[in-house]
Amino acid sequence: MSTVFLGVRHHSPACARLVERTVAELRPAQVLIEGPAEMNGRLGELLLGHELPVAVFSHYRDGQRAATSWAPLCDYSPEWVALRAGRAAGAEVRFIDLPAWHPAFAERTNRYADAEARYAEATERLCRQFAVDSSDALWDRLFEVEPDGGLAERLDAYFALVRGDAEADAGDRARETYMAAWVRAAVEAAGDRPVLVVTGGFHQPALRALTGSGARDGADGDGWERGADGWPVVPAPPDDAMAGSFLVPYSFRKLDAFAGYQSGMPSPGYYQQVWEAGPEAAADGLLRVAVERLRARKYRVSTADLIAARSLAEGLTALRGHPSPARIDVLDGLAGALITDDLDQPLPWTGRGTLTAGAHPAVVEMVAACGGDRIGRLHPDTPAPPLVHDVAAQLAALALDGGPEAKYRLDLTDAADLERSRVLHRLRVLGIPGLERTAGPTHGVDPVFTERWEARPVLGREAALVEAGAYGATLAEAAAVALTGRTRGGVAEADGLAGALFDAVLCGMGGFSEQLLGELSSCVRELQASGPLGEILATALGLWRHDRVFGMARGPLLAAVIDGATERLLWLLEGARGSSGVDFPRLRAVVAVRDAVLHAPELLSITREVATEIARRITEDPQAPVDLRGASFGLARSLGRVPGPPGVSGDPAEAVRAVARTGADALGDWLAGLFALARDEVTGVVGDDDGPGGGAESLIDVLNGLVGALSDDEFLSGLPALRQAFAFFPPRERDRIAARLLERRGVRGSSRSLLRTTADPLLIARARALEESVSRLLARYELEATP
Fold first, then answer.
1. CA–CA distance, 500 with 497 (Å, rounded to integer)
2. DSSP code per residue over 723-745
3. Rounded distance, CA 14 to CA 638, Å?
4. pLDDT tens figures, 443-482
5. For residue 534, which of 555, 562, 510, 506 has the smallest C-alpha distance?
6. What share of the chain is helix, strand, coil (3-state, %, to 5)?
7. How many other β-carbons are positioned within 10 Å of the β-carbon of residue 49?
8. Which of 200, 319, 612, 734 has its CA 20 to 30 A from that of 65?
9. Which of 82-96, 233-247, 555-569, 677-691 shows the highest mean pLDDT?
10. Cis omega before residue 232 (within 30°)?
11. Is 329 helix (H, G, I), strand (E, B) or coil?
């Protein structure tokens, strides 16, 4: 009896060939593979006849944690070859790793993410010794382009060296003790027949040590219970958790390290050719595909350039001592022949990671040629999560499965079309490709009552549907869970929270998800920025008061958000400190608070009297931003109480005079805040002089006197702020203000002469100041013109 440990690199053609040869020569009774043990009862699904690449998608969710991960397999994955070849040889094949939901995989979205960071020092030392730039080039040099003779011994030496004394983390230790328990059970079951263990090379030295001489005596001390069949028990998720694993189509793009894949080989398209035809044919294919892509992008590549690239690649192969062309030989040859201008960044194949912005267009196409565009396809008999069947049934029932040319125009006031809209938005929230909205309402109080949807490419739809099954068994449930997850991550991103709220409206989640309601209402109480929070409050309040389309009016979802946002905003506003200038988002937030207190008092934990008192305190606070003090003055008036800070009456005219004494800039900022909140209440321009805000002394008349008393320099300094403040008036009101000013000055003519100038008023004012400065300069040097 013997146990053979093969440490492999995931997605390596050389390792896949070694596994295939070893199975054929060893004829093992047991083949153990690093993979999710919960799939052992479903290995037949993997062998249905899929077009690879595919992946085992696993998901987990409970009240505290949600996790997803993928275990991808392609034709040249050693794990796939071990599964296929082991079954063909009559061996019992089993996956032996922990389920992906297990805490050992915390923060890891890819089961086959190698622990290379922990032995980077060893690989860097080897890279220097072999004069290569990256661990990928080192791997090619040592294994992919070398003859297969002695490969197993070279791999053993390599992995023993790179792991060395590096200590695995707690997650890897748990995985290794679990896999070791499977190895011991397999040895017992195999009797005198061999056992083959195929795992990532990082784990191989540890598994040998855990199952070697003397280790068996501690078999019962590894903490993993065995079942009645003698095999380790597969851990089950907690009763209150939702977990599962399903096969999904995968793609070479997702496998490619240049697109962010965490493990294995880069350039999957190239290594697919290495697997199928060897490195020589793969090098020829890479040259051909790269040139074809460049020419398709109108990048000039002549026959002479192609000959030069091939010659350079062959020369580099010989110079580097490679028995066959390696990937970097071909890429460096192409770069040397085709790129004549300076590069702003190193060639991407000299390291690991995604392509960065600004990469040379020829380099982008070379990397794409290496990556390939293959997309996997599942066998029709592959089981799918319940969500897939629910979506298919709903689309058919609502006549939304119209094909690749489909277009839909939906009337949101029609109940049937509103339900179609909700289904399509739920798919959108889950990231399911296929249909895209091209027109429709963009916020909760947008007066648009139609939507247009058009079919889009469905690439990746099948995988997206399976992966969305991690959120729930039905479309409504899955969308609610996805939105809830967005609110949990949206505490620091108010714009994202506003989007989640409106998406909940579009998806019809008003009374569906208590958890979503709770998350939204708690999140608004933690936001730090008043402007975005004000947008959320305004949208929620508008829907609560006026919605007759989405079915959200007077709904509990919006009520909870309105209460939490109003209370949080008042707290944020009172604590605001700032400099000069007008913060328009913050002023809109004050407006939203006013509307909530006036129009939805029954929803609020805070009373009208308390809100008014907060406004009064802000008005009196000299440290508060000037525009916010003006807005708070207007807020208090709107709520029915005139604030009276020490030395200043509640009369707007007196308040304006007090602010004007601090400067024209401050006056403009204060007025901007006031006009944002209480324009009609204080100006007296909507009605007669004895209307609201009019009477003995109109605020406009007071401002006319204050501005007229400004010096030219003061006027020029304060003009931008003053002009900004009066931008809060609609055109008709500005016209009436202009008419009043002309009347007070005894000037006849159209008020439009004050509103429409031949150029920007600020530009005119600056030109006048410049002329006066030039005149003073000429006078100083007695250069003024003779009359």
1. 5
2. HHHHTTS-HHHHHHHHHHHHHHT
3. 77
4. 766 778 899 999 988 888 888 999 999 888 899 999 988 8
5. 562
6. 55, 10, 35
7. 10
8. 200
9. 82-96
10. no
11. helix
